[in-house]
Structures are given as structure tokens and as C-alpha cells.
From TrEMBL:
Signal peptide: none
Source lineage: Bacteria, Bacillati, Actinomycetota, Actinomycetes, Kitasatosporales
FAD dependent oxidoreductase domain: residues covered: 35-386
The name this protein goes by in its record: FAD-dependent oxidoreductase
Stored PANTHER family: FAD DEPENDENT OXIDOREDUCTASE DOMAIN-CONTAINING PROTEIN, SARCOSINE DEHYDROGENASE-RELATED
A cellular component term, taken from the record's GO annotations: cytoplasm
Superkingdom of the source species: Bacteria
Pfam families registered for this protein in UniProt: DAO
Amino acid sequence: MDQAGGTSLTYLSGSGWVDRPTTLESALTGDVECDVAVIGGGLGGMAAALRLAELGRDVVLVEADLCGWGASARNAGYITPTLGNDPRILNRFYGDRVRALYKFAGHAVDFTEDLITRHGIDCGYQPTGNIAAAPTAAAFRRMVAHGRPGRRSVVGDAAQLGIPPTFPGGIHIKVGGILNPGQLALGVREVVRTSAVRVFEQSPVTGVVDTGDSVRIELPGGRIRARQAILTTNAFTNELPIAPRNLSTPVWVTAVETEPVSAEMLDAAGWTSRTPMTTNHFVMQSFRPTNRGTIVFTTRRLQTARRPRADRMPDQAVVDDLVRGFRERFPTLTDVAPARAWGGWIGLTPSNMAVVGQTTPRVYYSMACNGHGLPQAPYLGTLLADHLVEKGMHDDLAAVWRESRRFAPGIVNPVTLRLGWLADRLGDRIGRLRR
Ligand SMILES: Cc1cc2nc3c(=O)[nH]c(=O)nc-3n(C[C@H](O)[C@H](O)[C@H](O)COP(=O)(O)OP(=O)(O)OC[C@H]3O[C@@H](n4cnc5c(N)ncnc54)[C@H](O)[C@@H]3O)c2cc1C
């Protein structure tokens, strides 16, 4: 694995879930022509390219590094039908479309579960559902009052849900589950490599121009002429001038994995159900068990940068803060050591929803699935491919489609992220005092 540092905690520059493959597809050289060029080989781009090839299109997929090695292989591995924001905020952004958004998110879970089964991808998928855990009693009351408990949701206190008593309660949403995202991303990569898609890795696109009768795509070693192009470059999209300005903000998310924890210790911590959890903090935290007997936890302090660097490593201060949060929620596991840390870039939108649209007559984009792209990115890539070939628009694509090419500047910046962190920690402290 890519790693640095000599302490017992290893900082990784790649995914903590799988080793990086040693053989890469060759870089694009010379002049290449195709029907559709897909730029960016995460789960979104790979799914779009696969579907286009299935529909008989001559497709070229170009990836700056290694397909799947971005957020797709580094995330926490939750497949959930939840949307990123409080329903009240979503109502403000989307009004009548909110119902359609929930349908889209549910169908994205079904799609990704089917993708795993259809291609027989061994990624340790467990359909556990997910517990939305309230960090404080006040947050629990809000959750119950404003959540959208459905037929497949159960509300309960910590004992009823089998989660640590440091959470007053939560909602177990019995849809979706958890998997090893590295195995999923590399599994899909294998499916794409053995399909009719022409895959070029180590091929960063530096420019995209819609010339009126085709799309010209520039790379260090050559160029592509395509009838149409799709950008699935996630957090890196702002780097391409053809993308709409302010489409999303690049945000760096850090994950930590513990050393193995025994079943007895998990039981003593109160996590008897072993169901993965996410909190309803302003910046969501997550805690999940893994197939290797460890716990992976993510996301307390988010970071942003003007330009996302693909080779970035986690910051020690952010890792320390995550570990502090883990110990507050699992006080009986204070002696469990953090073993590895890694991170990845996501594109964040103010609504916390994915955006799909068209930036010129021949260039489309599908991205910014925020923290929900594991099921949503491949589903949207597939729906967009269908739209390009068959021209119709699926209701789920229409739910997130952006007609306007203008985006207001996002409010995500170091100051707002810091304020969000402070608000969360203040809430935690008040919650602890009242416990
Ligand atoms: C730590 C972490 C935890 C997360 N947890 C979850 C979770 O539990 N559940 C969930 O649903 N989501 C989660 N997410 C979000 C999820 O991983 C993403 O939304 C999803 O993977 C996005 O997929 P993608 O294909 O759009 O983007 P990516 O996987 O980022 O792929 C984009 C690709 O484009 C390539 N690229 C960029 N620029 C260029 C260029 N100029 N030329 C060629 N190629 C280019 C990149 O190299 C990259 O491979 C998490 C993310 C992180 C980082």
C-alpha cells in the first residue's frame, strides 16, 4: 500500500480497503476517435461507459490515474437510500421535487445491489441497513419529529437498537448496507476492462472543447475526437474550464481504521447489533464494523482546498480529532489503537444533492454525489448513458437534472466548515452534560 510515516498509525495516500493494482492500462497516445468519451473513471464514469458500450456505442474511458482509485475506492462503504440534508432544507431547495429525490435515492440502492449481483463482484456486501444515530437527546427528538420513517424503518433507544449508550437513540433504516468499497471499485474496473470499452489510464484530460460538430479532448499524449462527452470527474471538475463554474466545492474527507476489536469488547461497548451507524451532526460522523474485525470511522473535520491534489495524505490533527470522537462514543474501547488513516476528495454542493446536466450541446456532466455517491454515482452514470442514446429522460434522472448552467458560489469554505465543527462539538458537550 502507499504509505508514509513510521508510527504505529499508518497514513495512506491511497485506499485503506485494498492494495493498489500494480498493472495499469496504458496511457492514451496519438489521435483517437469515438462516439462518446467518458472523462473520469470512478464508479460514475465506469458505469456510464459500460452502459454506453452495452447500447452499442464506441466508447473511450479516460482516467487520470487508475480507474476507481478516487473516492470510489476510499469511501466508508455505506449503501444508503438517505439524502444528505435535513428534509426541511431539501424542501427549500427542491420544493415539489423532494418526493422524487427520495425515490431516486431508493432506486440507486436497488441499482447498485443489482450491479454487484449481476457481475458477481466479491465485495463483502452485507444488507444490514444503517442506523441514523442521534448524538444527543435533542437531536433524537428532532430526528423523530422531522425524519421520514418509512415502512422499513424502526425507531428505538440505544438498547433497542443495540448501539452504544452514548447515543440516546436512532432510526434503523432497513435498506442498503455496507461493503468493501475498494473491492467494489476494482471489481467494476475489471468488468470495464474486459468489456468493449476502450480504457486508457494514466491519462489526465487537460482541455475539452465543443467545436460545434464534435468534442475535442486534449491529453498530454494525444487527443480524442468524440461526438459527445461526459464529465465524471467528481471533485476535480472545476479544473476543466468547460464545466459550469461553482458546480461544487472540493472537500477532503478522512477515514480511520482501528486495530481488530474482539466480539466481547464490542458487546461490552453496547454495539451488540453491529449495525453501521451515521450521526445527524451538521458534519455527519460514521462508525462501521468491517469483515476484518476492525472498526472504520469517518468525517468530523472536513477540509477544502482551491485545487484538490490527488496525492494528498490525511492531516494528523484531523485524524487525532476523529480518534477523540471515536473514544467519546466508545469509552470502553479507549485502549483500541487506530491503525490506519486515509482520505479522499468529494464534490460538495450546497443542497448536498448530486447534479447532472449539460454544459454545451455535446458535453454532459454527472457528479457531486457528495457523501452518497457509492450507490448514486453509478446509477446516475447509467441513467445519463441511457439519456444520451435513447434521448428520453428517466424520472430519477429528471429529479436531479439541472437545466440552468449557472450555479451560485457555494458556502463551503474553511470558515463555515470550522463553524460547523464547533457547533457539533458544542452540541456534543451539552449532550454529555445532560446525560
Ligand atoms: C472518506 C470518504 C467516505 C465516503 N463515504 C461514503 C459512503 O459511505 N457512502 C457513499 O455513498 N458515499 C461515500 N463517499 C462518497 C463517494 O465515495 C463518492 O460520492 C463517489 O465515489 C463518487 O464517485 P465518482 O465516480 O463520481 O467520483 P470518483 O470516484 O472521485 O472518480 C472521479 C475520477 O475522475 C478522475 N479524474 C479527475 N479529473 C480527471 C481528468 N482531468 N482527466 C481524467 N480523469 C480525471 C479521478 O482520477 C477519479 O478517478 C465517501 C467519500 C470519501 C472520500
